Automatic annotation (TrEMBL):
Highest taxon, organism lineage: Bacteria
SUPFAM superfamilies, sorted: Concanavalin A-like lectins/glucanases, PKD domain
Region named Disordered: 853-874
Keyword terms, alphabetized: Disulfide bond, Signal
PANTHER family: CYTOSOLIC ENDO-BETA-N-ACETYLGLUCOSAMINIDASE (PTHR13246:SF1), ENDO BETA N-ACETYLGLUCOSAMINIDASE (PTHR13246)
Protein name: PKD domain-containing protein
Organism this protein belongs to: Hymenobacter properus
Length: 973
């Protein structure tokens, strides 16, 4: 097999941090969805790392695979699909609804069989995603992705010789309700250790319940070395089948292949060991610019773009004859691979969703039409849809699981949100159109009946023209009592110009049509349509058709809910649920409680402490006049039953700092950060500095709390952060890309939660230095130019789990190396202008949602996912309020003033009053409290000159008598 790269780009990407991930964050509640091997070995269902909130109770839906209703019946269900986005814990590690619209999402479950929750070291799938997968009949498997030491930990045995790690993995999967494990071993081991690991896998086969799957990745081989086979052969087959012993249920082969021999070798070996060739998932890494299967653009081999690489999976390109199954790695290209900027820009949602459609429906975004020669055909060209809609009742509200609004019964609250647990069954085809091409189908993010989306048909129709969109493949038996409920809306009152197109198994070519009743207005309408005329037939496809006898220049039709059931619509008990648009607000600031209750028709809100303490609105709003902490209660009713939800101490109300006050910014370690745009710090030297007050430190991998700087996927790196793999999460790291190497300097000191600390990292072309509270803590020899020209952030960088839970103040970036004296003197402020100052955020901008760049370089920081309540008057106590720069105030007590402040030279004129005949001790301290000059003055002295240090910056001048004390800031130019 021809090697493509000297150093392979492996599944190890996530662990090493080479992939640019989302501007998102694992929420604190989900911190134990990644475990270390040691935590796994200590795990119990009642222990501290067990998360009851992560337990999925949604069963795996039954699927009915049928070729007849397919758009292309010349396909095969023999081949299976494993979908493996790179770094799930980084950008969707949550258990509860998130206050962000632009998190990663997936809506094409019907084309896949297994979803790998790729995370490390022990990646446990998060409940919302497990529930969405299970509703669609897709298995969700977690990941075991650790190093040699981690596997050594898992290989421990109990007194009976059984592998404790195997027992724990089964217990964790059973407890949380997911479907198995993906083993990714990419660290060299000894032959004996590999033998033990294979025996652990064999024991998993004995212990696991029916339906649970164990997958192996093609990397580690029996000798203990890591060597990628890129097919299924005699070298890696012992990890799938070892003689008569079943070791794994499937293998995900590596993806450095081009030739069809990859597949013939795999099929031959599978047959030789008595396993199905469809237990072999031939890997395809579709990340742009990385491997032969890359999308988009295509890998160019010998001058020809390899746009047809998927044809290799089929004998002679015959879709009825797949050779192996398919494993797709890094399909999150639509999110953070350059196909959209949705990960950092919520407004770019259309490009993200079009990218998802492109993956499955091809370059033309329509699965029913042939793509141009050389274009991407889409996975849906090769793979049939799997049908999980097999029994009544069937209901969907077309909610994709996120939105920029939240609607309940059509009443809208404006807010960004994501929660895959709320995702409905998605259309089987996105999108399958026939007829006139001027009407398009899409998800509408501005109109919804429940959740954040509806399905919209829109465009223009010529007289007598029609467009049919097939939405769902089903297998539903219709009886004389079957009804269909439809909630819909249109552009105008009157004829809807729309009808449902129902295809039955006994006649898949000619649909039955049901006219959608006319609209009384432009609001949501509800209609119940009887399906009794089709009793004893099987509904195979649900579609919708736009049609009109007269020309329509602006046709629009939205579907908000579709429900099919027998007899009377089943009455379900109401479930109360809601989420606030913000849980920390200021006095007088309005907060909206977005109501996500289900099966309810009326609501009662109790809002103690608010200016209006009760409401019957669908989405309640409240303002609070007094600072404090308040609870909120919602009672949801449907006429026969009710459900009550109280969120105790849910809303925190703060008093706003006055405009222009000395403030810091408070970050939540979840989604809040400041985006200062692209800053170029590349060159021979740089410095970064800030004050930080951590609230908590990261308890789980990757243990990082970013403070300020940039990190752009292995290049363009310059940052200060707390924690990293292998160090304590309270230790400071100064990280800089120097030439082609990322250099890391770690502090000896460990920070204390709840305590302000000044940090500075400098690089002068020969040495990296790290200062903690003005004192040199550690240094590292390094030479070369800095490579750092990328997006600069405060309180987050690169990947989701790396946000700061705490406060920042006085953040700065320089294109020169500060001296030790400057680090001490300038900690609390910089006299402007200052040479080499590239960015300076004093963070004194309350109540704005931007923070000014005082350097004059216009790198304004945008507060992202933040509000006015994130400004705090909690600032470093080491930085007293400047009084010496203000006009002198008359006072009877001891007063000290600097005449001519800032001080331009080496001497400062000082005036003293109110000493009341007592000797005065004058002292000058740097901002870290160190005394740099001191002198006792005679009782009669009221004016004197003092020596000022050479280092420019901020100092504190203190005057003290036996009974009084006064201080003033002195600015040295």
């Amino acid at each position: 097999m021809r090697p493509f790269y000297a150093r392979p780009w492996l599944l190890l990407l996530t662990l090493l941090g080479f992939t640019r991930l989302a501007q998102a964050q694992i929420e604190p509640a989900a911190q134990y969805t990644t475990l270390t091997p040691a935590q796994l070995m200590a795990w119990t269902s009642t222990g501290p790392t067990a998360l009851p909130a992560n337990v999925s109770t949604v069963p795996l839906a039954t699927r009915q695979n049928s070729l007849a209703p397919q758009l292309n019946p010349n396909q095969s269900f023999n081949s299976k699909v494993n979908w493996c986005p790179d770094g799930m814990n980084n950008f969707v590690g949550y258990l509860n609804e998130q206050p962000q619209f632009n998190l990663y999402n997936f809506t094409h479950w019907q084309y896949i069989d297994v979803f790998t929750w790729f995370a490390s070291p022990i990646g446990i799938p998060c409940r919302p995603w497990v529930e969405a997968a299970h509703r669609n009949g897709v298995k969700m498997i977690g990941t075991v992705f650790t190093d040699r030491a981690g596997f050594q930990t898992l290989l421990q045995k109990d007194a009976s010789g059984n592998y404790i790690g195997a027992q724990k993995l089964i217990a964790v999967a059973n407890y949380y309700g997911f479907d198995g494990w993906f083993f990714n071993a990419e660290s060299a081991m000894t032959f004996a250790e590999v033998t033990e690991l294979r025996n652990l896998l064999k024991q998993l086969q004995v212990l696991k319940p029916a339906g649970m799957e164990i997958h192996w990745y093609d990397a580690l081989i029996s000798s203990g070395t890591v060597t990628y086979q890129n097919t299924f052969n005699a070298t890696n087959s012992p990890f799938v089948q070892d003689g008569t012993d079943r070791v794994s249920d499937a293998i995900f082969t590596n993806y450095f292949w081009i030739y069809g021999s990859t597949f013939t070798t795999a099929v031959a070996r599978a047959n030789a060991v008595g396993r199905s060739p469809y237990d072999v998932y031939t890997g395809a890494d579709i990340w742009p610019g990385r491997n032969p299967q890359q999308l988009f653009p295509f890998y160019t081999y010998q001058g020809t773009p390899n746009s047809g690489w998927m044809d290799n999976y089929y004998s002679g390109g015959n879709l009825t004859a797949p050779l192996t199954s398919l494993a797709v790695f890094a399909p999150n290209i639509t999110y953070n691979g350059g196909l959209s900027s949705f990960n950092s820009n919520p407004a770019d949602y259309a490009r993200f969703y079009n990218g998802e459609v492109k993956l499955f429906s091809g370059d033309d975004l329509d699965i029913t039409t042939a793509d141009a020669t050389g274009a991407w055909k889409g996975f849906g060209y090769y793979q049939p849809v799997r049908c999980a809609i097999t029994a009544l009742p069937f209901e969907t509200n077309f909610c994709v699981g996120q939105g920029k609004i939240f609607a309940n019964n059509g009443v809208v609250a404006v807010k960004g949100w994501t929660d895959m647990a709320k995702q409905a069954i998605m259309p089987s085809w996105q999108w399958a159109r026939s007829g006139a091409s001027n009407v398009a189908a899409r998800f509408d993010f501005s109109r919804a009946w429940y959740g954040g989306t509806s399905v919209q048909l829109s465009g223009s129709l010529a007289a007598g023209a029609s467009t049919t969109v097939k939405l769902y493949q089903t297998k539903l038996p219709i009886t004389a009592t079957t009804n269909l409920d439809l909630v819909y809306k249109g552009r105008a009152a009157g004829a809807s110009s729309t009808r449902l197109a129902l295809y039955f198994s006994d006649n898949l070519t000619t649909p039955e049509y049901l006219d959608v009743p006319a609209l009384a207005d432009t609001l949501w309408a509800s209609s119940t349509l009887s399906l009794a005329a089709y009793a004893n037939r099987e509904l195979a496809i649900i579609g919708v058709q736009a049609n009109s006898t007269a020309a329509l220049a602006a046709y629009r039709f939205n579907m908000g809910k579709l429900k099919i059931y027998n007899g009377t619509a089943p009455a379900a008990a109401p479930v109360a649920n809601f989420a606030a648009t913000a849980t920390t607000v200021l006095t007088g600031q309005t907060v909206t409680f977005a109501n996500s209750s289900t099966n309810a028709s009326s609501y009662t809100w109790s809002l103690p402490g608010a200016t209006v303490t009760s409401s019957t609105a669908v989405h309640a709003t409240a303002t609070y006049a007094t600072a404090g902490t308040y609870s909120v209660t919602l009672t949801a009713s449907n006429g026969t039953a009710q459900n009550v939800l109280t969120r105790t101490a849910y809303i925190t109300v703060l008093t706003a700092p006055p405009a222009g006050a000395n403030t810091s910014l408070n970050f939540d370690g979840v989604s809040k950060y400041v985006d200062a745009g692209v800053i170029n710090l590349s060159g021979a030297a740089l410095s970064l500095e800030c004050w930080v007050k951590p609230t908590t430190f990261k308890a789980t991998s990757p243990f990082i709390s970013s403070l300020l700087g940039m990190e752009d996927g292995g290049a363009n790196t310059a940052m200060l952060r707390l924690g990293d793999a292998g160090i304590d999460p309270s230790q400071v790291q100064f990280v800089v890309q120097i030439g082609s190497t990322t250099r890391k300097l770690t502090s000896v000191a460990r920070l204390t939660a709840g305590q302000w600390t000044h940090l500075a990292g400098t690089y002068d072309g020969s040495t990296m230095r790290l200062y903690v509270n003005g004192v040199l803590d550690n240094s590292l020899a390094a030479t070369g130019n800095v490579v750092a020209n990328a997006a600069f952030s405060l309180a987050r960088n690169y990947a989701a789990p790396r946000g700061l839970d705490g406060r920042l103040d006085e953040a700065r970036a320089w294109t020169r190396a500060l001296t030790a004296a400057e680090v001490q003197a300038n900690a609390c402020g910089v006299t402007l202008p200052a040479a080499g100052l590239a960015g300076y955020w004093r963070l004194n901008d309350s109540p704005n949602l931007t923070t000014a760049d005082a350097s004059g370089n216009n790198h304004t920081g945008n507060l992202t996912n933040m509000g006015p309540s994130d400004w705090s008057t909690d600032v470093p106590s080491q930085c007293p309020t400047i009084t010496g720069l203000l006009p002198r105030r008359a006072a009877d007590g001891l007063q000290v003033q600097v005449l001519g402040n800032p001080v331009p030279g080496s001497q400062a004129e000082i005036e003293i009053s109110g000493a009341q005949g007592q000797p005065v001790v004058l002292s000058l301290r740097n901002v870290l409290g160190a005394v740099v000059w001191q002198q006792e003055l005679a009782p009669t002295t009221n004016r004197t000159s003092i020596a000022v240090p050479r280092a420019a910056g901020l100092y504190v001048l203190r005057a003290r008598t036996a009974t009084q004390e006064a201080s003033v800031k002195l600015m040295r130019q």
